[in-house]
Design a protein that fits this description.
Helix 4 packs across helix 5. The chain is mainly alpha-helical and 126 residues long. It is built from six helices and two strands. Strands 1-2 form a two-stranded antiparallel ribbon.
Amino acid sequence: MSIRISGVDIPIYKRGIIALTYLYGIGKSLSKLILQSVGVEENKKAKNWSDEEISKIRKYISNNIKIEGELRSEIRINIKKLIDIGCYRGIRHRKCLPLRGQKTKNNCRTRKGKRKTVANKKRITK
């Protein structure tokens, strides 16, 4: 038996507050808010949810929260907009560099990729 919400399988042997975080766009605080508003206990495991509770959770998420594909497409559109208008953050996105003020002299290898070695200039000997 597995629980599917928005096309994602929820792990049934985890607590409800943790199980909902498997959906893209839902963290611990949001899952806590969802379970409180629906009236499901946070520490109750997902396998112990009744069909009524599952349907309430599905309904609440689909009506009130952007998750999965809808959220991913919105983020992609926002980044494309930044790139198109040519603002600082858009330029940093285009160059694949960090855009929140981090120093790039020594760090940010994940964004910059593998090191590119640059040879020293040759000295002219007399």
